[in-house]
Amino acid sequence: MKITGKPDGQRRSGLARTLSKFGYCSRSQGIELVRSGRVAVGGVPRRDPEFPVRPGDSITVDGQPVLTAERVYLIMNKPRGLVTTASDEKDRATVYSLLPPGLPWVAPVGRLDQASEGLLLFTNDSEWAARISSPRSHLEKTYRVQISAIASQALMKRLCDGVTDRGEHLRAIRVSILRTSQKTSWLEIVLDQGRNRHIRRMLGVEGIEVLRLIRVAIGPLALGTLAKGQVRPLAASEKTAIDRALSPIKKPQAAIRKSVPGRA
């Protein structure tokens, strides 16, 4: 049985990447499957994850034909306390515990650390996920962040200008104050890049602790009223809106939104 998908001429891709591209498994899982000798192309076992595969080649795993999985696009409201991985060496609860049964293999699009909450996407469309995660797309991610300080215009300017941590330049493209209390503030922070623990590290350079961090939007897709811990498929209109936002655009300039602090 042949792998099917979008017409691709005679362009070849590596065997492990092909398994991932068609939603069978992750690329790292594909590498393990190939190296273990469980994958055959045209009836011949191949142990090289980079073995070139052309559209129309017959691929089997453990003797069973690999078919293109139906594309799945999910949105989750991740609760605090779950790790964004399929399995955890410390046996901590993972986001996969919230996914409904019967799904094909899906992977998270980017990550939220254990203490972070909010919008998390899952898909078996690895190329789509890569486009969303790529810093070249400049797709904006919006966060609501509670910090252990009273925010000032000067702080917001420094976050937009950027700070250096461990040799990496970390910046926001927009920051606004949502509300303040006597000791804390809620900020809205918009990024167009996704370094590891980007916001926590950026504020840590300023000596400020992040008390809560909630991702509320990815591009035009908003978390909305989805309850904490709930998962649903993306509507076709939501998927289309993200695809449009992924079209080449000019990189926005960093900006500070003027706001009047309120009370928590």
Describe the structure.
This protein has 264 residues and is α+β, with helices and mostly antiparallel strands. 19% of the residues lie in helices and 28% in strands. The protein has helices at residues 15-21, 27-35, 126-133, 153-161, 198-205, 236-245; strands at residues 13-14, 39-41, 44-45, 52-53, 59-61, 64-65, 73-78, 107-109, 117-123, 141-147, 163-165, 168-170, 174-180, 185-191, 210-218, 221-222, 231-233, 255-256. The strands form 4 sheets. Strands 7, 8, 9, 10, 13, 14, 15, 16, 17 and 18 form a 10-stranded mixed β-sheet that branches. Strand 5 and strand 6 form a beta hairpin.
Secondary-structure element string: EHHEEEEEEEEHEHEEEEHEEEHE
Strand content: 25-35%
Shape: elongated
Mean pLDDT across residues: 86
What is the helix fraction of residues, given as a range?
Answer: 10-25%
Rg to the nearest angstrom? 21 Å
Structural class: alpha+beta
How many E strands? Answer: 18
Q: Alpha-carbon distance between the termini?
A: 61 Å
Q: What's the helix count?
A: 6
Sheet bearing the most strands, described? 10 strands, mixed
- For this structure, the quaternary state is single chain
| Low-pLDDT segments, ≥5 res | 1-10, 258-264
